[in-house]
Each structure stands twice: as C-alpha cells, then as structure tokens.
Specification:
Largest sheet: 8 strands, mixed
Number of strands: 12
CATH architecture of the largest domain: 3-Layer(aba) Sandwich
Number of helices: 21
CATH class of the largest domain: Alpha Beta
CATH topology of the largest domain: Rossmann fold
Distance between the termini: 109 Å
Number of domains: 3
Radius of gyration: 26 Å
Structural class: alpha/beta
Bound molecules: S-adenosylmethionine
Helix content: 40-55%
C-alpha cells in the first residue's frame, strides 16, 4: 500500500443549507428594487415590511433593523463603494449588481453599525448563499474579511484623497455624496470647510417625523400628547414625533386634521401667507400643489382669513392626492388638474400665489437616501425651462400688489436665484420682498431678500423661497 493511499482522507464537509435570515433577505430585496427598478426606498420598504410583519417571526425590532440596513446602505453607498473597490481586484462596474448590493449591505454592518464583526460577516455570507449561491458567497466572504480589517475612520484615511489635495473629492468620499452635489451645495452655502462638512453630515442623519397641526382642525397640544413628541423649533404648527414614531398611529393624521410635513415646508407656506398685502386678500393659488402638503396648510390658513384656495396640479393622480389632503378643509377651496404653464384662469386673478416648482430635490436628501445617486447634473437643464415658465405664469396670475412665492426643495443656485433673476429681467414691474422678517425667530436665513433653510442649521429640508410682489400691470 502506498504512502499516499494510507493517508486518512479528510471527509468532505456535509452540505449545510444556508440559514435564512428574513431581515437581511428583506433588506436585499429592497436594495435590488431600488437598484433595478429605480424604485424609491421610502415607497418600496413599507409594503415589504407590512408583508413580513404579517408573519409571526418578524417583529418591530426586525423591521427597525431592516429599515436601518436599507437606508444606511443607500446613504453611505459612496463611502462603501470606495472601500469595496479597494478590496476587490477588478473595477466595481464589473461586479454583478446583486453581488455589489450584498457587499454594500455587509460593509454597512461592518463599518456603520454596532453589529459585531463575526456576526456581520457570517450573516452576510449566509445571505449571499441564499440569494447568490455558494460560489459567489465565497467571493463575498473573501471581500468582507478584507473590509473587516479596519474601521470606518481607518478606511476613510486610506481611500479618500487628502482634503488639501482635492477638498471636494475628499468630502464626497467621507460624507458619501456625489462630487458634483458636494460642489453645488458648497457654492450655495458658501463659507469654509466646517459648514459644508456639517451640512453633508446632516444629510446622512435620518430626520425625525414632523407633523403639522392644520390650523382650525388640530392643535399642537393634541399632537404633543403622543409619547415623547416635541414641539417644532420654528413653526407654531409643528410637532416632532419620537424617534421611529409612526404617523399612521396618530388619530389626527388618520383623520386628515394633521399631516406629515417637514418644518421647512411649513415655513414656506407661512412666509407666503404672512407677506404684507395692500387691498383684498381673498383669492389664493397653489400652482404646483401635488401631493398637497403645502396646499393643506395654505387652505387652513386661507380659511382663517376668509380666503379661497385654488390648488392646481398638472398630473391628475397627484391632483387626486391634493384633493385628499384638502378634504375637510374648514374653508372654501377647489382642486383642479391643470398645466401651470398654460393656466385656465385669467391673468391677475389672485392675491397670493405659491409655485413650489419641480426640482432636483437636493435639499431633501435626508429623506430620500437613493436620490443623490440618481440625480445627474443634466437634470438641472431639464428642469430649467419649466421652472422659469411656472414662475412667469405665477407672476401673470397675481394681481398688481399681490405676492408670488417661488419655492424649491433644492438649494442649487441654478434652481433658486438664477431662475428668479432671469425671470425678473422680463418683469420690471415686479420686486423682491425681504422674506426674512416674515419668519420671526428663525435665524440665519441668508443675506436676503430671499431665504434659504438648511438641515444642519435649522433641522429642516433645504427649502428655498423668494417672495415677489407685482408693482404694476
Ligand atoms: C415640488 S412638487 C410640489 C409639492 C407640493 N407643493 C407639496 O407641498 O406637497 C411639484 C409639483 O409640480 C407638479 N408639476 C410639474 N409640472 C407642472 C406644470 N406644468 N403645471 C403644474 N404642476 C406641475 C408636479 O407634478 C409636482 O406635483
């Protein structure tokens, strides 16, 4: 018998079925939907969670972990991509997207959560066995073992270019924003390194749910009875729910007397409603009303003053959402589906007009974790003509002495000041109003006359508002 044949053969490892972990499988499915179908995480996740919670083995803690895994992975994708790229031997674009999603989920657990290293690696490898197969799970295991060799700060020191060499690229990797977005936000914010770092960091924080108590229909006192709810910082109608608070569980929200609305949006509606007017103040228009958050607040404020609100929205299904948001409004209102650039109403019909125009949404990145990766600089060019056309129609729709509010949920200068400046060149009979005194107590609104809110300063979305008065016909 040869030496070879006498050696005891190592028994083959018995095949073990991968362990199915419903939380991570759900997180992976959500990431795939966002990646593959361009779905929005905030729309995809709730039905997946609802379905999972109908089963006995998925509780509230599982739902919280799945949500954190999905949102955290999407938000920090830029940083994780840089780390993963340093751990694989080919360009990331050559790694299959589902494999990359599993790797990102693993990287987030390792670098962005308190899940212990061995648990993060083994749970992700098990997930890979279930959703990718054993062969690719080995690759995932090898890459994650490399990722696990350092913590987030250590990795950033290795993969981000030094700030002094390329400040924007450095910030893009550290704070996980596309470089062009860093650049645009910095242009708008101005100032040095500290401010932009605070802003980018704030974009990565999950905001608390803020409610609006629609005046005449609900009070903040009522909403403050919710467990650990707090009054808003600036709007007299705002109440912030506790971390993880469920707006659907609040009676006033279910009844439409209150709604979910960022405080920045409340301030925009309030500033327009408080702008000084001479003469009648009975006809208000919201020209881009869908889905109806600002229209519902304006409608309630209009009712208190005996004014009528017309809420107009181009897309019929969104006009339906506006009608739902306004249902039960204490005063008169009308909802129509109409193109705001070719309006069915006569020029000069309104005393106050809001146009909250379609935009890149770069001011609401906290809420839409995937949005920063979807947007392209070309989107600005696509929105530009529509934004100008909608502002022109708004100015035509207001009477002499009436006020128009031009709003965006983006601080990008191409969507804010550039639009206003361009359009005002064609309207010598219109003047910008100083909007800052209309929000007493709200600090740091900019040098005026327009206002710019910021997540890191005000804790709101980065809403922009310019108020413009028609001075002659
Ligand atoms: C930023 S959203 C408005 C958000 C809304 N003010 C709120 O607070 O709920 C812009 C809206 O303008 C609508 N829109 C786009 N083009 C339009 C047009 N030509 N005329 C009127 N509305 C338009 C979009 O469908 C979208 O619902």
């Amino acid at each position: 018998m040869s030496e070879q044949s006498r050696r005891v053969r190592k028994p083959a490892k018995p095949y073990r079925r991968p362990k199915k972990d419903p939380v991570r499988i759900l997180a992976f499915e959500a990431l795939r939907a966002v990646d593959e179908r361009d779905a929005y995480a905030n729309l995809v996740l709730p039905p997946l969670l609802r379905k999972a919670r109908e089963k006995d083995d998925f509780d509230a803690r599982d739902a919280a972990l799945a949500t954190e895994l999905v949102y955290g992975t999407l938000r920090r994708q830029g940083t994780y991509d840089a780390v993963i790229a340093a751990c694989v031997d080919r360009p990331l674009r050559e790694v299959d997207p589902p494999v990359l999603d599993v790797l990102s989920l693993g990287a987030h657990q390792l670098l962005g959560t308190r899940i212990p290293t061995h648990a993060a690696v083994s749970a992700t490898v098990e997930l890979a066995r279930v959703v990718l197969g054993d062969g690719r799970a080995k690759f995932v295991n090898a890459v994650l073992r490399k990722v696990a060799q350092d913590d987030l700060d250590g990795w950033i020191a290795k993969v981000a270019p030094p700030y002094d060499e390329d400040p924007e690229d450095h910030l893009a990797v550290v704070h996980s924003h596309p470089r062009w977005v860093v650049s645009a936000l910095w242009d708008s914010l101005g100032g040095g390194r500290a401010g932009i770092e605070e802003l980018l960091a704030a974009d990565n924080e999950r905001p608390r749910v803020t409610l609006v108590a629609r005046p005449g229909r609900a009070t903040t006192e009522e909403l403050l009875r919710e467990e650990a709810a707090e009054a808003g910082r600036w709007s007299p109608y705002a109440v912030r729910l506790a971390e993880g608070g469920e707006p659907g569980a609040v009676e006033a929200v279910r009844e439409g007397r209150a709604g979910v609305q960022d405080e920045g949006s409340q301030l925009v509606a309030l500033a327009l409603a408080n702008a000084p007017l001479e003469g009648p103040d009975t006809k208000w228009l919201d020209g881009c009303a869908g889905p109806g958050g600002k229209a519902a607040l304006l409608g309630a404020l209009a009712a208190e003053r005996g004014a009528v609100l017309l809420a107009s929205e181009k897309q019929p299904h969104r006009a339906g959402l506006v009608a739902k948001a306004l249902a039960g409004n204490p005063g008169p209102y009308q909802v129509i589906a109409a193109d705001g650039t070719r309006p069915p109403w006569r020029p000069g019909s309104f005393d106050r007009v809001l146009v909250d125009v379609p935009c890149t949404g770069l001011g609401a990145l906290r809420r839409r974790p995937e949005a920063r990766w979807r947007r392209r600089p070309e989107d600005l060019d696509n929105f530009a003509p529509l934004q100008r056309a909608l502002l022109r129609t708004a100015l035509d729709s207001v009477r002499v002495g009436g006020v128009v509010g031009y709003a965006t949920c983006s601080p990008h200068l191409a969507e804010t000041r550039a639009v206003v400046a361009d359009v005002l060149k064609q309207y010598p009979d219109a003047e910008l109003l100083d909007a800052r005194p209309l929000l007493p107590g709200v600090p740091a609104l900019g040098e005026g006359p327009d206002i710019q809110l910021w997540p890191h300063v005000h804790g709101t979305d980065a809403m922009y508002l310019a108020l413009i008065r028609r001075t002659a016909g």
